[in-house]
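Service request form, structural biology core

Requester: graduate student, group of Dr. S.
Request type: structure prediction, single chain
Budget code: on file
Notes: please return the result as structure tokens.

Sequence provided:
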Amino acid sequence: MRSSPLWLCVAAGACNAAPEALEPIPDVNCADVAGEASLQVGTGTATFEPLTAEGPIGFYPGPQGGHHVFVSVRAQGLVQGTASGLGYDDPMVSISVVTDRELSIYLDQQRGFDLDGDTIQFVGQLVQLFHPNPVELDGDPVMLSVDVEDRCGTQASAALNLRLELGDAP
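Core staff response, request fulfilled:
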């Protein structure tokens, strides 16, 4: 028996449900945005945890067998975009992680930021490690680089030399 689309809507209770509205993008005149942009790189899954040069960054086993790091970013002097991360005006974020073992992780996507006073941030971006046996990377040096460009063309970058530290899943 084939289900009709109407029956599926009734069963799911979704036919009359209004789509969730995206948070409006604040009106910004790019000519009025002044100052120099700055960026701070961190980690954390629920709150921003700053990283320090030469310090550890945890990497964790994921539910599908891979390993990953969590990257968080705080910025000032950049236009926020939407907190939902679904807007075409959201800042473009590039994240790369490189080790001496030629491991390279690269993430390049538009990303929504939350507003916290005059600071915008996102927390807990999962970045997967691509290596045949990631556990071997425990203790290896790694360079974490983050570049952000907002809709006004303002750019900010940060890079840290860190050390991978294997941990239990958060």
